[in-house]
Amino acid sequence: MKFIIKCLPVFILGVILFVPSALADNTVKRIGGSTRYDTAVLAAKQSWGEAKTVIITGGTSYADAIAAAPLSYQKNAPLLFTNKDQLSAGTKKGLIDLKTKNVIIVGGTPAVSKNTENQIAKLGISVKRLSGSTRYATAAKVAGEMTRSSTALVVNGFVDADGMAAISYASAKKYPILFTNDSTLNGSTSNAIKSLGIKNTIVIGGTSSISSSLYNKLPNPSRISGKNRYNLSVNLAKKTGLSTGYTFVTNGFKEADTIVGGVLSAKQGRVHLLTNGDSLSKDVRTYIGSKNITSFTVIGSASSLSNNAASQLKNPVVGKTVFIDPGHGYQDSGATGNGLLEKNVNLDIATRLNNQLYGAGALTVMSRKGDTFDSLEERVNKGAKANADIFISVHANANDNSSANGTETYYDKTYQSANSLRLAQNIQPRMVSALGTRDRSVKTAGFYVIKYSKMPSVLLETGFVTSPIDANILKQSTKKDRLAAGITQGVSSYFR
Hints:
Layout: H1 3-6, E1 11-12, E2 27-31, H2 36-47, E3 53-58, H3 62-74, E4 79-82, H4 89-97, E5 102-106, H5 114-121, E6 126-130, H6 135-145, E7 151-156, H7 160-173, E8 177-180, H8 187-195, E9 200-204, H9 212-215, E10 221-224, H10 229-240, E11 243-251, H11 255-268, E12 270-275, H12 282-291, E13 295-299, H13 307-314, E14 321-326, E15 336-337, E16 340-341, H14 342-360, E17 363-366, H15 376-385, E18 390-397, E19 407-411, H16 417-435, E20 439-444, H17 448-451, E21 457-464, H18 468-474, H19 477-494
Parallel strand pairs: 2-13, 3-4, 3-5, 5-6, 7-8, 7-9, 9-10, 11-12, 11-13, 14-17, 14-18, 18-21, 19-20
Antiparallel strand pairs: 1-20, 15-16, 19-21
Helix pairs in contact: 2-4, 2-11, 3-6, 3-7, 3-11, 6-8, 7-10, 7-11, 14-19, 16-19
């Protein structure tokens, strides 16, 4: 920022020691075994010390498992998987550990063989099978075993994502899940709707899953959809009324883990969210931020839901909206010196910061992503429109004296004074450490963007482009990466 601007009255606070927060990161618990069978057993043991009744489906028969999930909730029975031709070792041990007396197999012998059924029976367990000639017929059979409801969910039986997302919702509402295809109502489903006295239907998924023409043929229909499976899980979570005190999270493309997560979340009365296996989806981040969720259980090993996604959940910045303002731009170059234009330095650092914060789990919004210009008022308005939790303006400094150098952070006392100070105190030492620059401390100043932004706000002066020492640092990509990482760490610490 040009020196003439810096001549605004500044109150120097002096040296402020950074004291790490005593508060902890978010809580993340992982339930995951070496196989889907082991994961299901581990999940069952989280809520059932003993389970008189257990529901078993084929390990890859996801339609059967989706249909069985609401029955699992009503029977207070965990849902376990098995291999087709023989009882999986982990499942066998699970049945013994849970002291199971009754097993309900959902699905025909192509999914769970007669041999597997016999192996279960040899454990002294009574076995009952619910199956039909198709997935539609099996779902209808399961619905017939449930407590009668005048409402049913209707899901495309070949779109697993819709059914998986709906498990906790269907279970909590005690609605059966019936299947159809995208354009015609299967006879088994039609008969079930009539025989079960279904008066209301809730279609899960958009028109690509179940067409408008089919929708209009259903009794008193309504629809819950989303732009993708992640968004659908969020929309369903908003309708369940389930607790977000802690929340279940699964990879929306790992069917077995997600079905188990739906069953367990329903049992515990908790929200269940589907996300990407490598990095939390934007919809999930937004929901987490809106509900201020700080405790999570993930289902599946790291190969299912990555350690990176789990780390994002653990980071207190997850779901927080950070507005990043690269100062100056276009016709306003800002400070100049040593071959550097401040506007370019600001954008480069801000872009790296944006990537780092998003990688940490935050929601990020930038005032500009290219060489464009917004007035100071427009920048403030953009931050307000983004409903940002914090506002960070990125700048570089200048002085007529080339020996002036170092890094400093400014805040204003007009709004959120204490929180802005705390944000500045968390960021400043980490910037200095990352760059190896002189610590010019935290200061107050009435710069427009931090004076009129009503959320906690800081303005960062990363270094002096007029200083040969600082300019050399600001030209190094590795240093700027370290700077972005340091600021990100400071923001995370602020939210602890």
